[in-house]
Amino acid sequence: MCGARSKARFPVGVSAPEQYGERVRAVATYLHKYQLLPFARTSEAMRELFGCSISPGTIDTTRHRCAAELVGVEEQIKAGLKEAEVIGADKTGLRVAGHNHWIHVARTDQLTHYAHDGRRGKLAMDAIGILPAFKGICVRDGWFSYDEYREATHALCNVHLLRELVYVEEVAPEQQQWTRPLAKLLLDIKAAVERAKGCGETELSGEQLALFTARYDRLVRRAARLNPPPPAEKVDALAKRYKVVRVKRRDPARPLIHRLQTKREQALRFMTDFPVAFDNNATERDIRMVKLQQKISGCFRTEEGAQAFCRIRSYLSSARKQEHSPLAALERTFAGKSLALNTLRT
Q: Mind giving me the DSSP string for 41-55?
């Protein structure tokens, strides 16, 4: 002991007497945004598992830092989706800052993009920017705003159609004479397509296509005969007495029949284009993460928090689909080397 006082500079990157490294920030963000733990439980888990007393406020700051690092990656994910052959699209409600907002999802087997907006329809989709530039095949539900994107080719989710057929039958059992055969037809076509794919074929035979299409048209005509549109004067009377939404609910079969008549090609797209799935279940599985967030951690207090969640989840979901570890992907982000599209296989 010479009694002299030694002093040295902090290492590069250390700017405070106490701060957390890349690994700690990555693990905290992983627990909060991938495992969906609330702030307080994430802080508790870090303390119990690693003896690291990181506060909820620091976790929040780390979340926003991560989101800021991923701005460029989000744009690359969106660019990849715009160029995809087939995407799935869906949306779900979410409480943000005490109001009903929406999370819009666009995805492929390799990429996922979540976006938050206070609107549900076309204005929100335009602001997100994927569907306006998309020219491939979009698998979606019957929400009318998707129809505005005419540069894309559309395919209806047939699981949604099957659910509507069941609902119509439950409301009016006499509709069974067309709802059940139509549901069976859709499943028969699905089985035929799967057999053809299993044999290495890329399309059904012309004879099969003609047979299935004729059965479809015959059943839809039967449904239309059983459910003729009401006289114009009756519609006017109902419109005066009830709101339009209530008029539709009084006759649930008519909107479905109209969709089956006018959008046959969209309903049967999976039959004519093998890359198109029978349903949009993969998109619903991706959007399920938003519902888990609500169930486990609740709503978002700010729009910035919702936007950060969407950007980080987009990155982690895409990384996972590409067989990258979400935790390792976060470590790279905090090291300034986030996975980019030249790393993620599109």
A: HHHHHHHHHH-----
Domain boundary among 244, 272, 300: 272
| Residue for token pair 């969407």 | 310
| Same-domain check for residues 245 and 148 | no
- Decide: 278 and 270 in contact? Cβ < 8 Å: yes
- Residue 6 CA to residue 238 CA, distance in Å, equals 89
CA distances from 305 to 3, 28, 92, 96, 231 (A): 52, 16, 17, 9, 51
Q: Are 184 and 212 in contact (CB under 8 A)?
A: no
pLDDT of residue 247 exceeding 60: no
pTM for this prediction = 0.87
Burial of 342 (0-12, 13-18, 19+ CB in 10 A): exposed
Q: Both 134 and 171 in a single domain?
A: no
Number of domains in the chain: 2
